[in-house]
UniProtKB/TrEMBL annotation:
Protein name (record): Citramalate synthase
Organism: Devosia litorisediminis
CDD domains: DRE_TIM_LeuA3
GO molecular function: (R)-citramalate synthase activity; 2-isopropylmalate synthase activity
Boundaries of every Pyruvate carboxyltransferase domain copy: 6-271
GO term, biological process aspect, one: isoleucine biosynthetic process
Gene that encodes the chain: cimA
Family matches, as InterPro entries: 2-isopropylmalate_synth_dimer, AIPM/Hcit_synth_CS, Aldolase_TIM, Citramal_synthase, LeuA/HCS_post-cat, LeuA_allosteric_dom_sf, PYR_CT
Length: 530
């Protein structure tokens, strides 16, 4: 049976740029565009040329090889022609191959926000599409607030769809702009739209304000639309947009969709989906969300001992898709609920093979549970578990010993009379009996300790040159001034691998130093065979 084609339209560089705290530079956009090209989406909406210097520069050159390079902008202003509208001409004269116009589809907004007549709005829509088609570019219309507009005035909302198609638009996209529509409403309204427009000319653009952007998108596909819009990792204004990293594998792997549709995403790209998602987060300089569907570090994790035992016999019963199909991996977490099955799987992940009746396994299990009773948690600190396992099993190399360390914070006035805070750390270590002392100043005591500890590891220094601390989290486990503090440190190296180490102590500096020490030790373990 021939499958129907679904088209993936990415709006990360435009809609995603409206995310609070995210500002894309031209270089960011170029890098992300290449990532999207490698993923294999059909359209890349790059922004609004003419609206700001970054987008204008980005559209001076065609940035895609395969995907349709798409510009976004407003339809022409009422009272002037498309030929005399600078905004429309800027879109048409850019290097974009396609132009996506946003047009109001809610009568209330047209008369109150735009303060024009409903017919003037339709004229602007028609003329903008016609001018784009005449310039030999593909035209798309985003019908803004379409679902709210349809509920208020279905006849007018449908007239916007007809006008766009009659003028030559390739796609008319139905937008749930405020993210408040329910999946059942999406299905019903799309069915009504199909009475005036073919599904292979309709798209869906859903926002996530009720947490249902993915569900609404899937409902629209099942109802008949054939273009899907969304962003990488679901970024976007307010609560974000439909998450393409969730939608793509659902469409490609779930039989209800996969048996009917072809997304154009290759099996190779799908198998690297986790890599794409995390590379994008790296570009944004933020930690990946562990519980993201399909690609999160916890997406294929199990904690309960009884599940872990069963999982070793029958993975398919506990995983809705094979983790490798999206480039992720199975994770049997180590915790107070852990049994031997969990430990064996976790050990194997670090290249440690033990028999189930090995007495050292009982010792390791007891150690893990005792440490967790004191505040440690190895659910999210797999690197610390690897270090602990090697230590308990007697296979941890003796890289270096810490004699002493000290961190001091001093507030003083500099030569200009300005009040400044200076943090200094001193660390003394021994490598094969040789005493090495390092001093470093940093942005706070943890940063200073990190710099000092890595400053001179003797013969091991070259093996940690690409190591860097990327995140630092503190949690107070008990209240009061004598509280126990848990520190989680995230590190990465030049290979792109990230790992987490943990430290626990009533003293936040001690806890931090423990996590830093284990991060370096884990890095040395990684490079042991190199």
């Amino acid at each position: 049976m021939t499958k129907e084609r679904l088209y993936i339209f990415d709006t990360t560089l435009r809609d995603g740029a409206q995310t609070a705290g995210i500002e894309f530079s031209v270089e960011d956009k170029i890098s992300i565009c290449r990532l999207l090209e490698d993923l294999g989406v059909d359209y890349i909406e790059g922004g609004y040329p003419g609206a700001n210097p970054v987008d204008t520069e980005f559209f001076e050159t065609k940035r895609t090889r395969r995907a349709k390079f798409t510009a976004f902008g407003m339809t022409k202003r009422a009272g002037r022609s498309a030929a005399n509208d600078p905004g429309v001409q800027g879109l048409i004269n850019s290097q974009a191959e396609a132009v996506c116009f946003v047009a109001k589809a809610w009568d209330h907004q047209i008369t109150t926000a735009l303060e024009i007549s409903l017919e003037d709005n339709l004229d602007s829509l028609r003329d903008s599409v016609a001018a784009t088609v005449a310039a030999d570019k593909e035209a798309l219309i985003d019908c803004e607030h379409f679902f709210d507009g349809f509920k208020a005035n279905p006849d007018y909302a449908l007239s916007c769809v007809r006008a766009a198609l009659d003028a030559g638009a390739r796609w008319v996209v139905l937008c749930d702009t405020n993210g408040g529509t329910m999946p059942s409403e999406v299905s019903d309204i799309v069915a009504r739209v199909l009475t005036v427009a073919p599904g292979d000319h309709l798209g869906i653009h859903a926002h996530d304000d009720t947490g249902q952007a993915v569900a609404n998108t899937l409902a629209a596909v099942q109802a008949g639309v054939r273009q899907v819009q969304g962003t990488l990792n679901g970024i976007g204004e307010r609560c974000g947009n439909a998450n393409l990293i969730t939608l793509i594998p659902t469409l490609a792997l779930k039989p209800v969709f996969a048996d009917r549709f072809d997304t154009g995403i290759s099996a190779d790209s799908l198998s690297r989906l986790t890599q794409f998602s995390r590379a994008f987060d790296d570009r944004l300089n933020r930690a990946p969300l562990k519980q993201s569907p399909y690609v999160g570090a916890s997406a294929f994790a199990t904690k309960a001992g009884i599940h872990a035992s069963a999982l070793l016999k029958d993975f398919s019963s506990y995983e809705h898709v094979p983790p490798e199909s999206v480039g992720n991996e199975r994770s049997i977490m180590v915790s107070q609920q852990a049994g031997k099955s969990n430990l064996l799987t976790a050990l194997a992940r670090h290249g440690i093979e033990l028999a189930k009746d090995d007495p050292r396994l009982e010792k390791l299990l007891a150690t893990v549970k005792e440490r967790e009773s004191r505040g440690y948690s190895y659910d999210g600190a797999d690197a610390s578990f690897a270090v602990l396992a090697h230590e308990v099993l007697g296979t941890l190399p003796s890289y270096f010993d810490v004699d002493t360390y000290r961190a001091s914070v001093e507030r003083r006035h500099n030569a200009q009379g300005e009040e400044i805070t200076v943090t200094e750390a001193v660390v003394k270590i021994r490598v094969e009996g040789e005493l090495l002392m390092s001093v470093a100043e940093g942005n706070g005591p943890v940063n200073a300790l990190d710099l000092a500890l890595r400053k001179d590891l003797g013969k091991y220094s070259s093996r940690i040159e690409d190591l860097e601390l990327v995140d630092f989290k503190v949690r107070i486990l008990d209240g009061g001034t004598g509280a126990v503090t848990r520190v989680l440190v995230e590190s990465r190296d030049g290979t792109g691998e990230r790992w987490y180490t943990i430290g626990v102590s009533p003293n936040i500096i001690d806890a931090s130093f423990e996590a830093l020490y284990e991060s370096i030790t884990y890095k040395l373990l990684k490079t042991e065979a190199l």
